[in-house]
TrEMBL record:
Source organism of this protein record: Acacia crassicarpa (northern wattle)
Protein name in the entry: PORR domain-containing protein
InterPro entries found in the cross-reference section: PORR_domain, PORR_fam
Any GO MF annotation of the entry: RNA binding
PORR domain residues: 35-369
Length: 390
């Protein structure tokens, strides 16, 4: 039996990446990743920001009153992941929410503070001003698809991350018929968003190409230009130990040629070199996708919606874990979120945009909690000083 097994394995060589992952389960692979305290701290606050935004959207959904009853929010506590209940969460963020009593309804209501309303208006103005950029992002995403199409439902999943207006189907898609077309997907509850005119391969320049040009032009650049041709920027989590063999593999991977995200992919080869080329192309696609987002971050589940359309045959989450120098995966808030490492420094975007700046202002209010308010109600101070994770 043992002899037969050896002969079987000799006939079927296993790809290097698959071989490594087969030793551990997917959850173990996630748990064993090197942590980065800067990104973890950011996500600890960001998960509460997402809850704040969910409540904010409910409040703004009623344009006349711009308020919602606390009782209604309490019924949605589980869905909104408010572990201590709606009232406790609202009181924890008095710089964002204002609770008041409505005599006509005989119950407490909640509305946004003036500061939160101002931030919401700032973000809306920034989104409207960046419509040309948004159109370019959509065209780029469609250009990375092998068929130049993606499901409309997938775009709905990432509209916030891409900085699209909430009425983007009308204000972006239907307003640009020369670029976009909605087609029947022959399946319920969705359409396919199609790029009308297929653009040449060299029409777009990937974000990593811009980085390579900048690096090559630096006076202190120590790398040869031929080495930079297929390289990606790497920055590992603090304290992560890199063995000599790992460094050698990364160096070999960096110099390995690949087909870019906007180039047409030829026939897929099952050889070791062919599999490595496919894997590196997949890295280039998700790298470019993250570069197109407002905050250079996205939930893994959301970007996975595009995997089939981008021709990625690999597990995207494992792809992020395989390249800790390019991506960082966080599991805070019961969700897997991936960051583009090179876009951040000390927990902030290196090159911020107006939409990001508005959202960052709201995040600052989330972090502020109850601090900066008169100590009228001791309950506020208790909530502010508590280290609970909502």
């Amino acid at each position: 039996m043992a002899t037969y097994l050896v002969k079987f394995l000799r006939k079927r060589p296993v790809n290097h990446f698959i071989c490594v992952r087969s030793k551990v389960t997917s959850s173990q692979y996630v748990a064993s990743r090197a942590r980065d305290s800067t990104f973890e701290k950011l996500m600890k606050n960001y998960k509460n920001l997402l809850k704040v935004i969910a409540i904010q959207d409910l409040i703004l959904a009623n344009p006349k009153k711009q308020s919602v009853s606390v009782e209604f929010l309490s019924k949605l506590s589980q869905k909104l992941h408010l572990n201590r209940g709606a009232t406790a969460f609202l009181r924890k963020h008095p710089h964002i929410f204002h609770i008041f009593y409505e005599p006509s309804k005989s119950q407490p209501f909640c509305k946004l503070s003036d500061a939160a309303l101002d931030i919401s208006h700032q973000e809306a103005v920034a989104i409207n001003a960046s419509l040309p950029v948004v159109v370019d992002r959509l065209v780029r995403i469609l250009s990375m698809s092998a068929t130049k199409m993606v499901p409309l439902r997938a775009i709905f999943k990432v509209w916030w991350e891409l900085g699209l207006p909430d009425d983007f189907e009308d204000s972006v898609i239907y307003q640009n018929p020369c670029l976009f077309q909605l087609c029947d997907a022959h399946e319920p509850n969705t359409h396919l968003l199609k790029l009308v005119d297929v653009l040449p391969n060299n029409h777009f320049t990937a974000a990593v190409e811009n980085w390579r040009v900048v690096e090559c032009c630096k006076e202190d650049c120590k790398l040869d230009r031929t080495e930079m041709q297929f390289s990606f920027k790497h920055a590992y989590p603090p304290g992560m130990r890199l063995s000599k063999s790992y460094k050698a593999k990364v160096k070999k991977w960096q110099s390995f040629p690949y087909v870019g995200p906007y180039e047409m992919m030829g026939e897929k080869k099952k050889s070791k070199a062919g599999m490595m080329a496919l894997e590196k192309r997949a890295v280039s696609i998700v790298h470019e996708f993250l570069s197109l987002t407002v905050e250079k971050m996205i939930e893994v589940e959301k970007i996975s919606q595009f995997r089939k359309w981008f021709g990625i045959d690999l597990n995207i989450r494992d792809l992020f874990l395989d390249h800790p120098g390019i991506f960082y995966l966080s599991t805070k808030g019961k969700r897997h979120t991936v960051f583009l490492r090179e876009a951040y420094e000390r927990g902030c975007l290196i090159e911020p945009n107006p939409v990001y700046e508005a959202r960052r202002r709201l995040l600052d209010l989330v972090v502020l909690g109850c601090r900066g308010l008169p100590a009228v109600n001791s309950k506020y101070q208790d909530l502010s000083s508590s280290n609970e994770d909502e």
